[in-house]
């Protein structure tokens, strides 16, 4: 989360300097700078994700050296999941803070032509971003470990695409639907990257059904008794 905050700080500084060095009365230029700031923010987030991966690799080597069996107690997949989840949570927190600040006032969303679905759509977008960052973390760490650079490129490209789709708001159908499609596809990709398979899902469901049947049989065989 700290690494994400540092990347956001640097992106904010770049955007702030760009705005003050440009013509503030030019609305088209300012909108272009906003898109530029979002792209820079995405690139910095992925750069700091890579820096965090390198830091965790150094820490993993140190933990392996001091352990009794010569292996780190934390796997790379666990670190990737925790890293992605941390990026997603802090990103979602900042998104929710901005939305709550808008809800304070002045006025109420939907009165002067604004969409009445602003808050519910923003909630779904925030949820999608939290999940996406978690999935991106799993895929990114695995790609760095195996040196699959095309996977890194797809992660950065999907992050840029997701960020760019938010500029279609308040045309929410054009932004929300593609973002959730990206979330679903990325989630499946992260699932298989982490070692998941359809066979494992079937085994998990079959084990759950067997456990439920055993519980039902045990409950049926129990006979109440009195002292």
Please give a structural write-up:
This protein is mostly helical and 227 residues long. The protein has one domain (1-197). It contains 7 helices and no strands. The chain has helices at residues 2-21, 27-66, 76-104, 118-146, 149-165, 172-193, 198-221. The protein is globular. It starts with a helix and ends in a 6-residue tail after the last helix. The relative contact order is 0.09. Mean pLDDT is 82; it is low at 223-227. Keywords: Membrane, Notch signaling pathway, Signal, Transmembrane, Transmembrane helix. One of its GO terms (cellular component) is gamma-secretase complex.
| Helix percent band | over 70%
Roughly how many Å apart are the termini?
Answer: 59 Å
Structural class computed from helices and strand pairing: mainly alpha
Query: Quaternary status of these chains?
Result: single chain
Strand content: under 5%
Can you tell me the overall shape? globular
Number of helical segments? 7
- What is the total domain count? 1
Q: Would you list the SSEs in sequence order as H and E?
A: HHHHHHH
Instruction: Tell me, rounded to a whole number, the average pLDDT.
Output: 82
The stretches of 5 or more residues where confidence is low (pLDDT under 50) are: 223-227
Rg from Cα = 23 Å
Main sheet attributes: strand count, strand direction, barrel closure: none
């Amino acid at each position: 989360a700290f690494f994400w905050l540092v990347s956001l700080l640097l992106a904010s500084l770049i955007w702030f300097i760009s705005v003050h060095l440009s013509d503030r009365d030019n609305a088209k230029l300012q909108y272009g700078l906003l898109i530029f700031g979002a792209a820079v923010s995405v690139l910095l987030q992925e750069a700091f994700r890579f820096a965090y991966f390198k830091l965790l690799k150094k820490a993993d080597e140190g933990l392996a050296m001091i352990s009794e069996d010569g292996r780190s107690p934390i796997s790379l997949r666990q670190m990737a999941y925790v890293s992605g989840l941390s990026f997603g949570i802090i990103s979602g927190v900042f998104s929710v803070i901005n939305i709550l600040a808008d809800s304070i006032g002045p006025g109420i969303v939907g009165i002067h032509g604004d969409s009445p679905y602003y808050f519910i759509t923003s909630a779904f977008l925030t949820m999608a971003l939290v999940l996406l960052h978690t999935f991106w973390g799993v895929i990114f760490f695995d790609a760095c470990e195996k040196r699959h650079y095309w996977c890194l490129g797809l992660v950065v490209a999907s992050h840029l695409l997701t960020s760019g789709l938010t500029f279609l708001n308040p045309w929410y159908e054009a932004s929300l639907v593609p973002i959730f499609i990206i979330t679903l596809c990325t989630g499946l990709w992260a699932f298989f990257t982490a070692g998941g398979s359809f066979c494992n899902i079937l085994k998990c469901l079959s084990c759950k059904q067997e456990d439920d049947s055993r519980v039902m049989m045990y409950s049926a065989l129990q006979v109440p008794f009195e002292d």
